[in-house]
Amino acid sequence: MKISLHNQVAVVTGASSGIGSGIAKSIASAGATVIVNHSSERSVDEAKAVLKEITDAGGNGITYQCDVSKEDQVMKMFQDVVSQFGTVDILINNAGVQKDAKFTEMTIDQWNTVIGINLTGQFLCAREAIKEFLRRGIDPSRSVACGKIIHISSVHEIIPWAGHANYASSKGAIKMLMQTLAQEYGADKIRVNSICPGAIQTPINKDAWSTPEALNSLLNLIPYNRIGQPEDIGNLAAFLASDLADYITGASIFVDGGMTTFESFSTGG
Ligand code: NAD
């Protein structure tokens, strides 16, 4: 059994670092041509470094700058990718940010920024991807499905998170966005799923692992007793995007070392 994404084109948002870069590398190694999306001029070099790792390993792709919270930029990204590569087969909706604050001190800007990137960004990219999937139709030389979308959600789609109301709200909403799209486009053979990471070692949560004390306290939440790595998510993304996962749609799959078993209950609660 071999995961193959040969002859397919994948857009990975926020692929210049962390989980997105891990996913971009995994799906490129399975044969997909990868659009390494990044948000701004500041992330150009990081995106180029990810693409170089992909091409050095024999894969294909391009970097593409686009702020996923901006409708005009997202529409242009999909138009440009389709005109350069013919179509899009896979969307990995990964870009996300945290702007943490105690709820009564949370500014409208912190709220809107997180909802704008984490939720509206996933809506905009999914809408453009599905329009392209439907335009192309099923092409069995590419995949038995018409298209695949993978939302990167979080364990916080089910675990409430004090001090992070904007982030937890965005991830809870992704669950309903994902399931609604899976239901609405199932008959068109478009598969839509979410990966819900636990604690993965990336820049977004550096405070939680960069000192031995912080890491120790984090590990108290993880029965499997290690922090996750971007490739833990990339491996599942490659499988979920492939035809091996053809009967999986509308699912949230947790990749969290057991975090959602609620470790604090392990001694009887
Ligand atoms: P990260 O900070 O390394 O990556 C986030 C990426 O999103 C960056 O490449 C950033 O440039 C990009 N981005 C931010 N705003 C953007 C915009 N407007 N347009 C396009 N790209 C934008 O963090 P990460 O941990 O790799 O996070 C990736 C995803 O995984 C996020 O959705 C995050 O919520 C989710 N997640 C992470 C963890 C974890 O423990 N690291 C856990 C659960 C979920």
UniProtKB/TrEMBL annotation:
PROSITE patterns found in the cross-reference section: ADH_SHORT (PS00061)
Gene Ontology BP terms: monocarboxylic acid metabolic process
Superkingdom field: Bacteria
SUPFAM superfamilies the UniProt entry points to: NAD(P)-binding Rossmann-fold domains
Family recorded in the similarity comment: Belongs to the short-chain dehydrogenases/reductases (SDR) family.
This protein's name: Glucose 1-dehydrogenase
Native organism: Chryseobacterium arachidis
